[in-house]
Structure prediction request, 643 residues.
Amino acid sequence: MWEGLIQKAKEGGLDAIDTYVFWNLHEPSPGNYNFEGRYDLVRFVKLVQRAGLYLHLRIGPYVCAEWNFGGFPVWLKYVPGISFRTDNEPFKIENEYGFESKTFGAAGHNYMTWAAKMAVELGTGVPWVMCKEDDAPDPVINACNGFYCDYFSPNKPYKPTIWTEAWTGWFEDFGGPIHHRPAEDLAFAVARFIQKGGSFINYYMYHGGSNFGRTAGGPFITTSYDYDAPIDEYGLLRQPKYDHLKELHKAMKLCEHALVASDPTVTSLGNYEQAHVFSTKAGQCAAFLSNYHWEATARVRFNNMHYDLPPWSISILPDCKNVVFNTAKVGSKTTVARMLPTNVRIQSWETFNEDVLSTNFDAKFTVVGLLEQLNVTRDASDYLWYTTSIEISPTESFLHGGRYPILSVDSAGHILHVFLNGQLSGSVFGSRENRKFTFTKDVNLHAGINSIALLSVAVGLPNVGHRFETWSTGVLGPVVLNGLDHGKKDLSWQKWSYKVGLKGEAMSLASPEKSSSVDWLQGSAVANKQRPLTWYKAYFNAPQGNEPLALDLGSMGKGQAWINGQSIGRYWTAYAKGACTTCSYGGTYRQPKCQYGCGKPTQRWYHVPRSWLKPTGNLVIVFEEIGGDASRISLVKRSVTHV
Prediction:
């Protein structure tokens, strides 16, 4: 899709493409390098050059490990020549979620200083920029991220004013609503930045795409990273946002000579109104007339002429006379995306079930006590089994008509499936706001040895905050059985066996080569049985046409899916909760504003790139954790209409 996306970006008025180089993909652990993706990067660079655009690369040690949160991996503390101290008085910063976080003063500063020095000494000949790093040392340029950056100035007057992340919308998390940022407000924010002397705007995101595989950028973040961007997840234009920004870019470039030749002169035109005027010695002039009132239109007098300014808007006058663009006046029609059925039939579902009872026998190791999940899995899998057993006396009262005992399991996140004697007892999950939770349920045990198998599921890695090494995931306890004749029994410090991943993962069931050598259960009735921990397999032919495609997984619960061995990501039919209200573009935007989709699955459709398909015989593999109806899975196509 790259070539088409890059061309659409150019046609939208962009001058450069910014993309990440995720260093954790190239160096998964210290000294262990993997450069298999370098050929894709070279191809990407060539496509950008062919389109006549500039390229900006973001290089970071780990995904979203931003300097000013001190969120670097533990091993980076031992970089030669740096002395990291954590006994300093912390300073406070406000992050993009609007709350204060703390990081270690000298430790964070020392690391940032080392990183800047290391980068500059590479002698690349290109500028180095640090986002949200107010004390970035020369010649590194500090920059701004946010919904608005007109308040920002660099730490030295000779550095350009750069907006490295102009947030076009916001990401979604499973169980949350969909976010929308009005085109009028986004254009207003960009014009505000330019009128105060801003030099560079980078849209985050102009195209967000999909978090294929397990690459979602944080706990509970959806596979879709649509971000309400001007180009949607499927590569289609989102209107009116795309065209409205395109017209804004045209208007700004008409002002180019005046903008780069002078600083603005600011004049008050009323209580909420201002004029920012750029003028050159050659007589060129450009003006930005702004109205900051959320609701009221204003009539202002400028250069002996009257101008009507809608609420929360800026008019651009490239010649200081004629308005060529107003941020609140949208001329483009709105596109409405729909998912339509294709003529494709997914046929002959087959199943393979995980054997929960064999988990304890397949365990890799046994220790006393409960272990943190990511320290065990090292992110090799989302899944970690915790298994133990308990012996129940035949004299227990609950075996003779008394009340069942209650099993209580405290988890640090993110999802927990509890199995007793091989049967699913229940599932419980946290949220992005509160990852921790407790499973509590009456349990029917029998006399003798009972097996307890806890399948803990991670849904993404830490992404925002400090001291990631202190964050916890998995079952940390206590695990307690209450209601026995002799009171409660704490299982936390008895022997627990551990197994990383699923049997199907170890067998590479998602691989076209390996899946064909496995005995799958066949039959027309197997697909719609609500079984937990079940793998589903089927084939389909590619539909005709060139519309973007998606897999409709609305009939399923929670799991992962693959097409021809390529992971299309985690899926989870979690219904959105939140405050979905009517939306007005006026007023300061924050992510809780203009939400929609409450009461519906946060994500139902999962992007299937056409380049992954063959004309016939495409393999689809679905792993379901909780239970779903695979017979209702379908391939749909994305279409847009204009209103």
Notes: Residues 62-104 have pLDDT under 50 and may be disordered. Residues 108 and 476 are 29 Å apart (CA to CA). The first helix runs from residue 2 to 11. The chain has ten helices and 36 strands.
